[in-house]
Sequence to fold (86 residues):
Amino acid sequence: MKMTGNKCLLDTSVVIHFFKNSTQIIQALNSFEEVYVNSIVVGELYYGAYASLNPQKHIDQIQSFLNNCISIQIDANISVIYGQLK
Fold:
């Protein structure tokens, strides 16, 4: 995994690997000054938590993780930028 810069926007699968204590993911995330998640990722994490056998444990884990992230909301402007960059 090669990364440059000091900011990172996470997708759901990366956060799940972090929760599963993936050493590679933990080391990579610790190398960033700013870690971002968007509202879709947060929704997917909560969906998984509520569908789990121990929702409160996972909700607590999500909330603790999000305290160390910057949350961004998806709007039309973000969608346009995504389209330009993709």
